[in-house]
Design a protein that fits this description.
Layout lengths: L1 H14 L4 E8 L7 H17 L4 E3 L23 H13 L2 E8 L6 E7 L5 E6 L20 E4 L2 E5 L8 H9 L4 E5 L6 H14 L2 E5 L10 E3 L14 E4 L6 E8 H10 L27
Length: 294
């Protein structure tokens, strides 16, 4: 009976699949602490994204508040705020989703958060950055505690924010929780090695990846990567769907072929297919030794 229920659910999920999933990626700096102005920018970009038939708009890191620290808990956005409400209303009106990013109130200190809003204006997921940059300005923040996945109109989406992507475990956990697409709000420079890492995260987990970064010298390079890295004959294919330059401001688009990605995930050997978890015990150790002691 359980097997039948699982099989029916699986078939329903396949029947509800969306053939194409189009992400509008915003490459732009926001205005620090200018919540009203940043909200107006987001809604304007949502209109443009909707006109270009995007399914979702991905913002850079902490776009609503601006990514400027230090910040205290009183200054951070509360769970219920008019700016997010305006964006949710626009999502419903325009029929386009959005990943809204902001510095939000935490338990004791602010958090670096992202909300996944669907085309009905419903918040599906709030994720708070797990790997905060405790060695830099983000030491004024508290970390999130878990990676989560939501279902966005039939597509399983996970979020990781900026420094999260430096750790293979972030994308791996999202993959193991069912993510098909990982969206990455970002705000940093020195992008070249980080672009290679994002491509690898897509390849090793068989997930699509898209990243939004503010424009600027030694910054920008908003991107998207297909998890499909070879064709049915075993020949390597270019998995870059989007690669913006450093300084151009505006929207860029990446389209994922979900049917092709799902077929690839069902047949290829990466992801969670042949992992040897008995050899991974040390990954759960919190012991830090030289040369990594800070």
């Amino acid at each position: 009976m359980v097997e039948l229920f699982q099989m029916v659910n699986h078939n329903l999920f396949r029947e509800a699949s969306i053939m194409k999933f189009k992400v509008a990626v915003l490459q732009m700096k926001s205005l620090n602490r200018q919540y009203k102005e940043n909200t107006e920018i987001v809604i304007g970009m949502m209109k443009e994204a909707a006109e270009n038939r995007a399914d979702i708009l991905l913002l850079p890191e902490a776009f609503l508040t601006g990514y400027a620290m230090p910040i205290d808990n009183e200054e951070a956005l509360s769970e219920q705020n008019s700016y997010l409400e305006q964006i949710c209303a626009a999502a419903s009106k325009l029929r386009v989703g959005v990943v809204v990013t902001a510095l939000t109130k935490g338990q004791k200190k602010p958090r670096n958060s992202a909300y996944v809003v669907d085309k009905n204006g419903i918040v599906l997921l709030k994720y708070s950055k797990v790997h905060t940059c405790d060695f830099a300005d983000e030491s004024c923040l508290e970390s999130g505690t878990a990676f989560e996945v939501c279902i966005f109109h039939g597509i399983r989406i996970g979020i990781m924010i900026c420094y999260d992507r430096e750790y293979p475990e972030s994308a791996r956990i999202l993959m193991m929780k069912g993510a098909e697409i990982i969206l990455v709000p970002n705000d940093c420079g020195a992008m070249q090695p980080r672009l290679c890492a994002l491509s690898t995260r897509a390849y090793e987990n068989m997930v699509g990846v898209a990243m939004a970064n503010p424009n600027g010298e030694n910054a920008g390079n908003s991107c998207a990567f297909n998890p499909i890295c070879w064709d049915k004959n075993g020949n390597c294919v270019d998995n870059v769907l989007l690669m913006a330059d450093a300084v151009t401001e505006g929207l860029f688009y990446a389209e994922f072929d979900m049917d092709a990605i799902r077929s690839y995930r069902e047949n290829e050997m990466m992801g969670n297919t042949f992992r040897k978890i008995k050899a991974y015990d040390l990954l759960l150790s919190d012991k830090i030794e030289y040369p990594f002691i800070r």
